[in-house]
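The instructor's notes for this session suggest beginning with a concrete chain rather than abstract definitions. Hand out the sequence below and ask the class to guess, before any prediction is shown, which regions might be ordered.
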Amino acid sequence: MFALAFMFLGMLVGFLLRKTRIPGHIARLFIPIVCALLFAMGMLIGHNPMIMDNLHTLGLHGFLMAFSSMVGSAVVVSIICRLFPARNTAGSTGLTAAAAGRTEEGLRENGLQENGLHKDGQQ
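After discussion, reveal the predicted structure:
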């Protein structure tokens, strides 16, 4: 409960500061902070003799859970892809190649020239 309160407090502060540069500076610290937390967690696990004595069984169970999660996800994605086949689209935007501007006709429709400039000469 304590951790959730901090998360919601962070969300509120982030919402209030969203139009400033502060969240961008904090985002740069995210990876080092996560690495420090993982290092601290690893130190605590390595210091606990009960975990270290049972690591061979815990590691096997962890591997099996992670592997079965990946296989299960792949099976579900495969089923969904078979139930809902992809349309002939240009990328993940759902636009046709012409609408995405990837053909000469699409470039003309969007008012672009082949060099990427608009008709008025701006990019």
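Then share the key points. Residues 32 and 59 are 26 Å apart (CA to CA). The chain is about 65% helix and 0% strand.
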